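note to self — DONT lose this again. spent like an hour looking for the file last time. sequence + predicted structure for the chain T wanted, 221 res
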Amino acid sequence: MSQEKWSAVDDYINRLFVPADPALDETLKSSDAAGLPQIAVAPNQGKLLHILVRSIGARNVLEIGTLGGYSTIWLARALPTGGKLITLEFEPKHAEIARANLRCACVEDKVDIRVGRAIDSLPQLEDEKRGPFDLVFIDANKDGYPDYFRWALKLTHPGSMIIADNVVRKGEVANPDSKDAMVLGARAYNALLAAESRVTATVIQTVGSKGYDGLAIAVVK
């Protein structure tokens, strides 16, 4: 199996289940034009996030890591009338691009972008009593994942879902000798998740147009 084959299968899946969408396509184009890293979730993964939000009837969603707003749009579109999504982004430039993309997708009224370090914004959400959140999607700096998970537990309720992206790192999470900070962050997150008695969780390996990685999915007991 090769990256070429994985991408071809993703293209096949997307043609069937994720038809072209002007707002989402423009989000990727504008992000690329602004020089943002090409690390947004794949279209079929965005659709998965959308389905998960709808499947649990989520009304209050938290996203850690906005980038250009691609996954944000998928999450926001799944919310019912009156639903709200708070998304945390460290880079002001990324947040600016995301705001324009959210307007283009007509979901800006559902989304509150908070700019700054997530580890600073999360206590503020607790102080503001913005939780509990029905779903938390973590897709940011991997070294912060363990702290983000601890905060996600504080800000959710039984039945809430906590999803983390990029937790396999091309299989390097299975390498105990890795010195890569991204890998170490993912390993720490996975170990914390596995040891936490307040959730039921698993990790799924994924391959596709974004390469070889994986998702961690947990439900709060």
